[in-house]
Each structure stands twice: as structure tokens, then as C-alpha cells.
Amino acid sequence: MKSQSIEIVNANNIMLAARLDMPDDGYKATALFAHCFTCGKDILAASRISRQLVNQGYAVLRFDFAGIGGSGGEFADTNFSSNVQDLIDAASWLRLNYRAPELMIGHSLGGTAILAAASGVPEAKGYVTIGSPSEPTLILELIGEPSLRQIKSEGYADVNLEGRTFRIKEQFLVDITENTVLTSVRKLNKPLLILHAPGDKTVSIEHATMIFHAASHPKSFISLDKADHLITSKADADFIADVVGAWSKHYIDNHRG
After folding, report:
1. How far apart are CA 248 and CA 101, in angstroms?
2. What contacts 197, CB < 8 A, 6 or more positions away?
3. Closest CA to 40 of 86, 2, 99, 3
4. pLDDT at position 163
5. Which end of the chain is less congested by CB atoms within 10 angstroms, N or C?
6. Which SS3 state, helix, strand or coil, does residue 80 take?
7. Exposed (0-12), middle (13-18) or buried (19+): which is 73, by Cβ within 10 Å?
8. Residue 189 has pLDDT above 50, yes or no
């Protein structure tokens, strides 16, 4: 496997730190991976799934959203809409330098974002969500009522998310309430694979059900059994990669052009 660090300049002239993983002997298709909320491209789920897909012939691009990890910008100045634009910009980089992403994969809110970005990546032949909310407003629950009150009264709050502190401004709250992703799902008309653990304590499986009902066929819904939300088990990450690889063959290998 070949792996290289990439720098992508987004629409706001912010550098996005990215990594492109590729097979040694060419690739059959390209994939774009969107990480979970506040996580980063190098979290186990993103890196393990990407590398396993490389073993199946994919070139996989994963990157840090602006304000996260090695990317530039301030997290407080980002929002769901900027994440969606970052995805479209990353897809454009792939389009210009290799091939537009044929497979779009997103973990947690990253999965919600790939669905919202679908109109900006017309070449994609399949979409995969992993433990994803049906709407970005789920983040309001993670922020919590006390912090939400502070944001509304003071304009911002420093919020603890997964053991790290992030500054969230009022513009972030306004943005997520204005995005209706299920509307994008109803217009998707592309193959969709939904992966979700029934016991996910961060994003309940009802979100997967709502995405499934909103989508048109062909669509598939596969249980991740006892996997946790962040997919911290290598075995669970490998299972996801195997399922995605097998599912995508029909839509990518057999439907080129």
C-alpha cells in the first residue's frame, strides 16, 4: 500500500490536511471518507476501514475537516454547511488529480454530511453511512441544555465533547437547524448502504431507520451488532470494510461509464 500526505485548499482558502491511501499496483475506483464529528482522519475507524478498502483495490482519500486535526481554520468558525463544502472541495481535488469519488463513505456526522453533499459529487455511484444521524440537529443533544443556554445568551460556549473542549458559536446552532438532510436523501436516487449498531448510545438506531425510509431503492440496512459508536474495535472496522467492499462491487465494478 502507498500512503501520502495531501494538502487541499478549500473554498475559504483554508488548508485541509488529507491522506491518500492507494494500492501498489493501480486502483479500480476512488473513495472519499468523511470522519465523525470532532474526530479526525486518523481515528481508528477511518484509518482501518480505508486501509482495508485499499486491499480491495480502492484509492481512498480521507481528510480533517477545517478546524480539526492537522487542518487549518478555527473549529468555532466551522459548521455543518462548511463540512459539506469541505467534502465537495475534497471531491474536486480527487476529480482533478485522480478520478472523482465513485464511493462516498461517512462515519457518524460525516455520513450525514456526505448525504448533504451528494448534489456536489454527481459521479458517485454509491453512498455508505456508518452510525449516522438522520439530521445534524442531533448535535444539539450532545452539546447539552446548559451549554445551549450559554451559547444563546453569550454567543458561544466551550463544550466538552468526547473528552476534548471545543468552542461552539451561535452560528453553528443556526446552521444545523437550517439543514434538512432527509430532503437530500429523498432526492439521492443512488445506491445507499446504511450500517448501524442497534445499541449505539450516541446515535440511536432510529436515525438509521429514518434514513432508510427516506431513501429510494436500491438501499441496504446492515446491523453492526455490538459495535460502539466510534468503532474502536479493529474487528468491527474490518467487518465494515468487508461489507462495504462486497456491496460496492455490484454498483462500481459492474456499472462503469
Report:
1. 13
2. 131, 205, 223, 224, 225, 226, 227, 228, 229
3. 86
4. 76
5. C
6. helix
7. buried
8. yes
Alpha carbon distance 156, 105 (integer Å)? 31
CB 117 within 8 A of CB 83: no
pTM: 0.95
Per-residue model confidence (pLDDT) at position 254: 57
Helix (H, G, I), strand (E, B) or coil at 29: strand
Tens-place pLDDT, residues 128-172:
999 999 999 999 998 999 999 999 999 999 998 877 899 999 999
Task: State how far the Cα of 159 lies from the Cα of 116, in Å rounded to an integer.
Answer: 25
Angle separating helix axes 181-188 and 205-214, nearest 10 degrees: 50
The candidate with the shortest Cα–Cα distance to 201, out of 227, 229, 221, is 229
Question: Phi/psi class of residue 110: alpha, beta or left (left: φ > 0; alpha: ψ in -120 to 50)?
Answer: alpha
Cell 451561535, located at residue? 170
Q: List the Cα angle 162/69/239 in 5-degree steps.
A: 65
Which segments within the chain are labelled E, that is strand? Answer: 2-9, 15-22, 29-34, 58-63, 103-107, 126-130, 156-161, 164-169, 192-196, 219-223
For residue 250 the three cell numbers come to: 455490484
Taking the alpha carbons at both ends of the chain, their separation in whole angstroms is 27
Cα-atom radius of gyration of the chain, to the nearest Å? 17
Q: Which residues contact 247 (CB under 8 A, 6 or more apart)?
A: 126, 128, 193, 220
Residue 257: predicted pLDDT: 45
Instruction: Say if residue 250's pLDDT is above 90.
Output: no
* Grid cell digits, residue 46: 477511518
